[in-house]
Amino acid sequence: MMSEEAGQMLVVYDDPSDQRSLSLDDTSSTEESPDETRLSLETPNDVIPYIGQRFATHDEGYEFYSEFAKRCGFSIRRHRTEGKDGVGKGLTRRYFVCHRAGNTPVKTSNENKPQRNRKSSRCGCQAYMRISKVTELGAPEWRVTGFDNHHNHELLEPNQVRFLPAYRTISDTDKSRILMFAKTGISVQQMMRLMELEKCVEPGYLPFTEKDVRNLLQSFRKLDPEDESVDLLRMCRNIKEKDPNFKFEYTLDSDNRLENIAWSYASSIQSYEIFGDAVVFDTTHRLTAFDLPLGIWVGMNNYGMPCFFGCVISREENSRSLSWALKAFLGFMNGKAPQTILTDQNLCLKDAIAKEMPSTKHALCIWMIVAKFPSWFNAVLGERYNEWKAEFYRLYNLESIEDFELGWRDMVNIFGLLTNRHVANLHALRNLWALPYLRSHFFAGMTAAGLSKSINAFIQRFLSAQTRLAHFVEQVAVAVDFKDQAAEQQTMQQNLQNISLKTGAPMESHAATVLTPYAFSKLQEQLVLAAHYASFQLDDGFHVRHHTKHVGGRKVYWDPREGIISCSCNQFEFSGILCRHALRVLSTGNCFQIPERYLPMRWRRINTSSAKLLHSSNDHGERIQLLQNMVSSLITESAKSKERLDIATEQVSILLSRIRDQPVPPQVIRDFTSIYRKL
After folding, report:
1. In sequence order, which residues have a C-beta less than 8 Å from that of residue 301 and are 6 or more positions away?
2. Do 232 and 473 touch, CB atoms closer than 8 A?
3. Smallest Cα–Cα separation from 520: which of 556, 495, 490, 544?
4. Nearest Cα residue to 75 out of 165, 209, 207
5. Cα distances (angstroms) measured from residue 453 to each of 304, 307, 430, 446, 450
6. Other CB atoms within 10 Å distance of the CB of residue 10
């Protein structure tokens, strides 16, 4: 009787693609008892659907089945209905199916609309629950009339099932919180961490992902990106008119819309000339208000502080846009490629660097990798997460490739990560991030995790959800100026600090007068350690090892006539600072000064050649920068004794009086006043 009525009723599919891939009518769906149903996980009987189970409404039946599915490791969706509210007997049946039921729908191609090539999760799974409306004694209710829990795919673990779209939800309260965070300009990653702390949940355990948050922010976008792009180009042209040394490049698509834009400032180009040997290209950020990929080039100066090199905004992040960005950056820097470039784990970026910077060593930024660890491993490792992380850092800092490989194998076995795809992927890319594989390349200390904090602090100064795209270039300029001023103050503070000599060796006192305090502190560490090493001369060099060890050690080659020294540990090649092994050999060989070539220009204080450059340079900004460096050196040298300080104070007072007697053009006064008010 019921099947005859069903054949005459209106059948509606929530997803049309299911109509041709699933058949869940009375003839194909037998009514099963709980004993005949193979359950996916150990589940209490009172939460297992069974034939005849009753619900007051069909929505109540859906919620019950959804909770059951979540415990078992899958999610569900509404499949089809029979009948229609307000027509005849109304809605009489509902079918709920596994989220992997049905087959991939065939999409009609549209040349004018870009297609999203996303892999479907559907595999024709036949698991389902059917409920039918029954009216007895005038009170309608819904009963389970069909149930099958057989799946043709693997079910997810409890710590994985929560990532299914059906279980990822952002409450209204969380939406308001996210939008408030967005107005403060913090990144999505920081939003997630704050909300984890507020809700007292472990990293990676919020009921939504970073992608969900970005989609939410995108839905609240109110500004027209096309109008903003026009204003952005106009702003760049205006800056270029005022400052000919400002550089920018852009591309337009076939519809004359802005596709990519990159820029760099005069001060950034000057910094790159000296400190562009090692560069971080950070593409992990987005302009929140427009959901546009943002790339930032930064480096490290001779005082161990970040310096800005350039910026790029693209409509899409792909091999073509990244290749264009790198080409534009090289154009800004007069074709000079860095020795080393550090990036996030991005296959498109890897290909673009190989194409545009073939001679540059590409490596993965360790802090960008570690930032993903909570979402990758926290749920998997539980209480052992911190123990595993400490072991990972130990392996990361090893010197020997052989020790790394043996340690990695033991780590995988001890923590049961043999089948973990993230661990397997990290190992496959180990030559791009693990220090034992990278020590023969120069990184200028940029592998230190602590550097990420100062770089991120700098980036957050101009990342704002409410930023007008047209004003973004100016905001970056203000942030760069602020960073330069802060760096100058820190430089002066470093120079004013009294340097304490720890070894009394002539090499130490000589290096202290040449290197910046930051670089000298790194060298001094090695000088102190060198005293604990013994050196043994061989036919082709020296063997150096710790005085307590009888095996191991390093091979050092030294040619006193040529002033060339090298060590098998490759520390100088890696950091630009001589290692304890080489310093030990120099000390044994009665060398009282470190050879000039091993005191790199990028780690030195300003030298006397700057005074010549100051007179020969026609660039106003460059001359100001050189003068600042000279003033910094003046303070450093003057602070060493009372006599020096007295002479400096007297001479600077005379010099200031002479300078103030010189006339200043009215336009310069107006420009200076304007800049001062902004600050």
Report:
1. 271, 274, 275, 307, 487
2. yes
3. 495
4. 165
5. 13, 14, 24, 12, 6
6. 12
Phi and psi at residue 591, in whole multiples of 5°?
-95, 120
Which pair of structure tokens corresponds to residue 425?
């992927």
Given a contact cutoff of 8 angstroms between Cβ atoms, the answer to whether 366 and 396 are in contact is: yes
**d(C-alpha 386, C-alpha 240), whole Å:** 50
Alpha-carbon span 187 to 495, nearest angstrom: 35
Is 536:589 a contact under the CB 8 Å cutoff? no
Q: What are phi and psi of 676, to 5 degrees?
A: -60, -40
Of 432, 425, 431, 296, nearest in space to 363 by CA: 432
Nearest in space to 128 (alpha carbons), one of 160, 159, 97: 97
Upper half-sphere CA count for residue 48 (Cβ side, 13 Å): 18
Burial readout 193-217 (b: 16 or more C-beta within 10 A, e: otherwise): bebbeeeeeebbebebbeebbeebb
Amino acid identity of residue 347, one-letter, is: L
Q: How far apart are CA 275 and CA 516, in angstroms?
A: 14
576 SS3 class:
coil
Cβ atoms of 39 and 48 within 8 Å: the answer is yes
Q: Are strands 139-148 and 54-55 parallel, antiparallel or unpaired?
A: antiparallel
Burial class (CB in 10 A: 0-12, 13-18, 19+), 620: exposed
Q: Give me the residues paired with residue 295 across strands.
A: 312
- Taking alpha carbons only, the member of 96, 102, 98, 79 closest to residue 11 is 79
Hey, what's the torsion of the CAs at 620, 624, 625, 627, to 10 degrees?
140
The dihedrals phi and psi of 546, each to the nearest 5 degrees, come to -65, 145
Only one residue has tokens 């043709």, namely: 152
Q: What is the DSSP letter of 95?
A: E
- In single-letter form, the type of residue at position 54 comes to R
**What does pTM read for this prediction?**
0.60
- The residue ranges of DSSP E strands in 315-364, in sequence order, are 340-343, 361-364
Computed from CA positions of residues 400, 401, 405, 408, in that sequence, does the dihedral angle turn out positive or negative? positive
Give the pairing type, strands 361-364 and 340-343: parallel
Beta bridge partner(s), residue 11? 82
H-helix segments, 45-121? 58-72
Q: How far apart are CA 437 and CA 432, in angstroms?
A: 7
CA 88 to chain centre: 59
How far is Cα of residue 443 from the mean position of the Cα atoms in its chain?
18
Give, for 631, the enclosing helix (H) or strand (E).
helix 620-638
Q: At what angle do helices 517-530 and 506-514 cross, to 10 degrees?
A: 160
The CA R_g of the chain, rounded to the nearest whole Å, is 33
- What is the token pair recorded at 398? 């090893």
Strands 76-82 and 54-55: unpaired
Q: What is the mean pLDDT of each run of 10 residues along the chain (679 residues)?
A: 42 53 48 40 66 90 92 88 70 90 70 56 89 83 92 85 83 85 73 89 85 78 59 84 90 87 91 94 79 88 89 91 96 95 92 95 92 90 94 94 96 95 95 95 84 72 58 71 59 66 90 92 96 93 93 92 92 96 94 92 68 48 68 73 79 78 62 45
Cα–Cα dist 568/283, whole Å: 34
- 561: buried, middle or exposed (CB in 10 Å: 19+, 13-18, 0-12)? exposed
d(CA 476, CA 248): 14
How remote is the C-alpha of 586 from its chain's centroid?
A: 41
> Residue 335: enclosing H or E segment and its boundaries?
none
Phi-psi group of 626: left, alpha or beta (phi > 0 → left; psi -120 to 50 → alpha; rest → beta): alpha
Backbone conformation region of residue 595, classed left if phi is above 0, alpha if psi is from -120 to 50, else beta: beta
User: Counting Cβ atoms within 10 Å, is residue 555 exposed (0-12), middle (13-18) or buried (19+)?
Assistant: middle
